[in-house]
Write a structure and sequence with these properties.
Number of helices: 9
Order of helices and strands: HEHHEEEEEEEHHHEEEEHHH
Number of strands: 12
Structural class: alpha+beta
Largest sheet: 4 strands, antiparallel
Distance between the termini: 56 Å
Strand order of the largest sheet: 2-11-4-5
Helix content: 25-40%
Strand content: 15-25%
């Protein structure tokens, strides 16, 4: 990114969106990465020469994708309403989830991933249990009874959620009553001791399936993106702490796929790439004295 004055940084010359440049100096754009590589690492007196721009662009994108999978801590958040179909469609740049939460009464409730199957594909069968086929020879499908039961709220759950607790007679608070049952739930499976809604992620179908208690609730998905900004190359960027790693990644990828390059040169390029990635991770580790201090404040806490 080229240098800009502070007025343009803060106001974007009063052109909407005025916040377009906020935080931008932390990053270097994909276009600048490719241009810098062609200028500084490609030429007759360099290991890389006569390489096409499209190859460099391809490997630069792959390097940025690998960083997003492995090292970046830039998490995106998306809030949507879950309706009666009990599904949350995954965003187009979704790679992996970090946390799924319910937003209710101005409070964020983290949800637990359900270890039970909550959705399935069902084939249409005849009375003799044989499959039926369409005109193209593919098996006819239908909504499974598992999905129907989940959406209707009839699916039994191993979790201690609201559906399981319906009809349970919980008496008003009484000191003698509760003192009697202190410690009476030894052996409780803590994995399923959850009152909040539960979910399962079907990556192939591109949806999150919830249990019936999540109907008409707000859901917040925190996830890792692939960094490709939905195919808009002008918006792709990388943190400057990883800039040298991207150049090393491109150099290694080009040398590794070139015919006739000595093995020791490829090994040296691979070691450079690995070392620069490790250094960049350390720089971006966020080990800050203030954060450590907040955690250490609890070391003298009395445990009753």
């Amino acid at each position: 990114m080229g240098y800009i004055n502070q007025e343009k940084y803060y106001t974007n010359d009063n052109v909407n969106p005025t916040n377009e440049n906020w935080g931008s100096y932390q990053y270097v754009s994909l276009a600048d990465i490719v241009t810098n590589f062609l200028l500084m690492y490609n030429g007759n007196h360099s290991l890389i020469n006569n390489e096409e721009r499209y190859k460099i662009l391809f490997h630069a994108k792959r390097g940025i994708q690998e960083l997003n999978y492995d090292a970046f801590k830039e998490i995106k958040s998306l809030q949507l309403t879950v309706y009666s179909d009990l599904r949350f469609v995954l965003p187009s740049d979704f790679v992996n989830w970090v946390r799924v939460s319910m937003f209710k009464d101005n409070t964020i409730f983290p949800l637990v991933e359900n270890i039970q199957v909550q959705s399935a594909l069902s084939y249409v069968q005849s009375a003799t249990a044989t499959f039926t086929y369409d005109g193209s020879g593919n098996v006819n499908t239908k909504t499974s009874s598992l999905d129907t039961a989940r959406q209707d709220g009839a699916l039994n759950s191993i979790y201690l959620n609201q559906a399981r607790m319906q009809g349970v007679d919980i008496p008003p608070f009484n000191e003698d009553y509760y003192d009697t049952y202190i410690g009476a739930r030894y052996g409780l499976n803590t994995e399923t001791a959850n009152m909040n809604p539960t979910f399962t992620i079907d990556k192939k179908a591109g949806v999150i399936n919830f249990d019936s208690t999540m109907a008409n609730q707000e859901c917040i998905l925190e996830y890792i993106s692939d960094g490709m900004e939905n195919g808009d190359d002008s918006k792709i960027s990388v943190n400057k702490l990883f800039e040298d790693y991207i150049y090393a990644y491109i150099k290694y990828a080009l040398l590794n796929n070139r015919f006739g390059v000595q093995e020791y040169i490829i090994n040296r390029a691979r070691k450079d790439k690995t070392a620069l990635l490790r250094n960049a991770k350390i720089r971006l580790s966020d080990i800050h004295p203030g954060r450590l201090l907040m955690n250490l404040r609890g070391e003298n806490k009395w445990i009753k």
